[in-house]
């Protein structure tokens, strides 16, 4: 894979180049300190992936992301050396086209670049993935869907998730009579920044789950740990280290399965863009319990992996593009509220 590298610090730029050369099969074909120079380099030597220091965005403005994405037409992986200071800028950049982000250490030791290498390898799977096959929309579950007094909306997302979540949450009204729980694959150090960024795009309050937490309607709950978020038998949220074998922590599958076990009133589950297949098995269990289950359509996915896996196992009762999901969820809640009254 050919990589373009944009970083304002020469030393870090050279370490990244050397680390990728020694520990991966990917080549940094050009590197620069400046955004405008990157556009020129990309025009003559197009990369498969661009590594972009968020400080360059701060220098050149958020509009640079749009210019770069238009020029290179490839994934952009953001780099940050200061998670606390850069988190809001990272998520704003993702809203403008950056695909994901990776922490980069301030020191020059090669041993500290394992997270960056892991992210680059994930991006290579995206670059070289086969074209997904479009599948026919499945029918709705035959089981009756009835709600208790307070519906629950559960959502899972990975690569490309922050922007997808912002799009959906911004469409929900302030008086939404449902609790929302979100599992987003993200380093726990970025959870606070994600919550703050999403909070600016929704009328509903967002709470980072810090321990055993009861659910209240009209509120969004976001995972904030390197452990699995689950629902207990008393229908409260909590964290657990098991199963330890899961690649993703928190795991969407683990959470969806716990909800299927303990939330007795079928509600709504949504599986959004992301690599791999996390969430597909859990979504199927929810559908089998009578839930309305939505998988994001290929046409709006940044990465079609997770929804595709769910659709292939018939876990989705609805297959919808991103801008159709909020209306479908709200219509479903309204119909079932009316049924409960009558």
Write a compact overview of the structure shown.
This protein has helices spanning 10-23, 35-44, 54-60, 63-72, 83-95, 114-128, 161-169, 191-199, 252-262, 280-288, 305-312, 325-341, and strands at 2-6, 27-32, 49-53, 76-80, 100-103, 152-157, 179-184, 206-208, 220-222, 228-231, 237-240, 268-271, 292-296, 318-320. The protein has 342 residues and is α/β, with parallel strands linked by helices.
CATH-level-2 architecture of the largest domain: 3-Layer(aba) Sandwich
> Mean pLDDT, rounded to whole units?
88
Distance separating the two termini = 60 Å
Looking at the structure, the CATH topology of the largest domain is: Rossmann fold
The total of helices stands at: 12
Quickly give the structural class.
Answer: alpha/beta
Q: How many structural domains in the coordinates?
A: 2
**Outline type:** elongated
**Which stretches are poorly predicted, pLDDT < 50 over at least 5 residues?**
130-149
Description:
With 342 residues, the chain is of the alpha/beta class. It has helices at residues 10-23, 35-44, 54-60, 63-72, 83-95, 114-128, 161-169, 191-199, 252-262, 280-288, 305-312, 325-341, and strands spanning 2-6, 27-32, 49-53, 76-80, 100-103, 152-157, 179-184, 206-208, 220-222, 228-231, 237-240, 268-271, 292-296, 318-320. A seven-stranded parallel sheet has the order 8-9-7-6-12-13-14, with helices on both faces. Strands 2-1-3-4-5 form a five-stranded parallel sheet, with helices on both faces. Helix 3 crosses helix 5 (83-95), helix 5 packs across helix 8 and helix 9 packs parallel to helix 10 (280-288). 46% of the residues are buried. Residues 130-149 have low confidence and may be disordered.
